């Protein structure tokens, strides 16, 4: 299996997909199995009452994205033994040239989220050349949880990744070799000294800007290298405070709608941003706040609920 071709840099939508996959949860709850290393979770005594609220939040979020001209493939998460099914970006990703990757997940309950019907829909609606399945690495205790573990710069071909139990260096290097990304690995901790569990809670890379919690990166040399690498592509760097990261300000995704580039983020995240930060984002993308406070109790926000589709649609499905 050879190295996959690099996407054309000239396309304005290389970084921002115009179609996404979302999963509307029926049995949502805060997953106690993943709480050991996801310190963004909020455990609550009445978790059984959260499912209809999360269902309604994703329903509204999908509708709002569609109103912006984003194609939303909405699936039903009916497996009640997969409480984190609302976060599909962790188990698969799609890539220009017709490639789909399937990832190894740390938690046993999260492995149940992988679904053949989603992969078959992608094959039916888009030009898929090959599905590359890394999930067998789970047998060796090797994990790489998709675009949670990695924040991908599709323009400059860099995979930013925080070291954690969910992001194995070997799996990351295998992915990067296969998909023509350069790995940029670094350590990051929250104010309490806990490792950041997923890179996409720490940073968001858009076409013309990047938001990142620089103070959480423990190595000052690596921090400067990351800032240089992001800035080299002409992006403006928006530094996020620890408090803003705690409000999911880094867990956003740039999408392409009928009116151009849109930054989808939560209302929690938007309220945490400063006026200056909002103005910088607004120079190249309109902000679309989505209210998902119940879903955020599980330790992820808008970016986690969205799996971008970086594939070419089939002409006969339009």
TrEMBL record:
| Source organism, top-level taxon | Bacteria
Instruction: Tell me which stretches of the chain form a coiled coil.
Output: none
Provide an example Pfam family for this protein: DDAH_eukar
What InterPro entries has UniProt attached to this entry?
A: Amdntrnsf_FN0238 (IPR014541)
**What NCBIfam families does the database record attribute to this sequence?**
citrull_CtlX
Q: What is this protein called?
A: Amidinotransferase
Species, as recorded? Mesorhizobium mediterraneum
- Which taxonomic lineage is given here? Bacteria, Pseudomonadati, Pseudomonadota, Alphaproteobacteria, Hyphomicrobiales
């Amino acid at each position: 299996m050879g190295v996959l071709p690099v996407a054309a840099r000239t396309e304005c939508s290389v970084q921002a997909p115009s179609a996404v996959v979302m999963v509307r949860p029926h049995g949502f709850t805060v997953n106690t199995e993943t709480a050991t290393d996801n310190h963004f979770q909020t455990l609550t005594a009445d978790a059984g009452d959260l499912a209809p609220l999360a269902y309604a939040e994703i329903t509204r979020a999908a509708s709002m994205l569609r109103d912006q001209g984003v194609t939303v493939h909405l699936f039903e998460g009916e497996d009640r033994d997969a409480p984190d099914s609302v976060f599909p970006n962790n188990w698969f990703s799609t890539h220009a040239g017709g490639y789909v990757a399937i990832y190894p997940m740390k938690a046993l309950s999260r492995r149940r989220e992988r679904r053949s019907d989603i992969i078959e829909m992608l094959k039916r609606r888009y030009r898929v050349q090959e599905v590359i399945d890394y999930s067998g690495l789970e047998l060796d205790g090797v994990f790489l949880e998709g675009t949670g573990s990695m924040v991908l710069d599709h323009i400059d071909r860099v995979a930013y990744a925080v070291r954690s139990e969910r992001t194995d260096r070997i799996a990351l290097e295998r992915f990067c070799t296969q998909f023509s990304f350069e790995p940029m690995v670094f350590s990051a901790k929250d104010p309490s000294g806990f490792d950041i569990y997923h890179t996409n809670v720490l940073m968001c890379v858009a076409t013309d800007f990047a938001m990142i919690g620089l103070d959480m990166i423990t190595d000052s040399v690596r921090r400067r290298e990351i800032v240089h690498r992001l800035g080299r592509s002409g992006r403006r760097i928006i530094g996020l405070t620890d408090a803003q990261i705690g409000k999911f300000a880094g867990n956003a995704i740039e999408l392409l709608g009928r009116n151009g580039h849109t930054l989808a983020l939560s209302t929690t995240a938007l309220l945490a941003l400063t006026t200056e930060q909002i103005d910088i984002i607004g120079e190249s993308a309109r902000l679309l706040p989505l209210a998902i406070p119940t879903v955020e109790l599980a330790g992820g926000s808008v970016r986690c609920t969205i799996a971008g589709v970086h594939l070419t649609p089939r002409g006969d499905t339009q």
